[in-house]
Write a structure and sequence with these properties.
194 residues; mainly alpha; Rna Polymerase Sigma Factor, Chain: A; globular
Length: 194
């Protein structure tokens, strides 16, 4: 049985400490460990693969360059996703948010993109239609509501972590997520005829 490296067994906080001390393998492990969730958040916020890659890369570079600013009041992942969210906002503002729907699916196991191919072409079309409808519905949400919902749904952050990352009361987080769900359901029912 192969032995796990120290980096894969270390906590994020341990890796941050090592990275601050100049350990490049710790920086690489932090990058590797959090790239997928950061990309998924950026992709849901921006709706375009290239923009999401740009935002994720910008956010990761900023986070790793400013590790000394991480004070440990939140988890490293919460802190990083806030930086990536801000980078996505910047990319969206620079690019004036163009809606894009590709013919690819998110491979949740590997965090990458794969061509949308299954044995049932009709199922592919239904899935692609649903993905388009969801992206269109997300586009209709106000930015702050969308950001909060995506951090919860794609980023996997708790209400408390989102409240900390956005510097808002937990009640506001709950309200934004609830309102986003209601709006998304309404938009999707209108699109899908549910």
């Amino acid at each position: 049985m192969p032995e796990a490296s120290i980096e894969t067994m270390a906590t994020d906080e341990d890796l941050v400490r090592l990275a601050r001390d100049g350990d490049s393998s710790a920086r690489e492990e932090l990058f590797r460990r959090h790239w997928d969730v950061a990309f998924k958040v950026a992709y849901r916020l921006l709706g375009k693969e290239q923009d999401a890659q740009d935002a994720t890369q910008d956010g990761m570079i900023k986070a790793l360059a400013h590790l000394h600013d991480f004070d440990g009041r939140s988890t490293f992942r919460t802190w990083l996703l806030k930086i990536v969210t801000n980078a996505a906002y910047d990319v969206g503002r620079r690019r004036k948010r163009q809606t894009f729907f590709g013919l690819a699916t998110i491979d949740s196991e590997n965090g990458g993109f794969e061509p949308a191919m299954d044995s049932d072409p009709a199922q592919n079309l239904r899935r692609e239609d649903l993905r388009k409808a969801l992206n269109a519905a997300l586009d209709k949400l106000p930015w702050k509501q969308r950001e909060t919902f995506v951090l919860f749904a794609e980023g996997g952050l708790s209400y408390l972590e989102i409240a900390s990352a956005q510097a808002i009361p937990i009640g506001t987080v709950m309200s934004r997520i609830s309102n986003a769900r209601i709006r998304l359901q309404s938009y999707l029912q209108g699109e899908e005829g549910l």
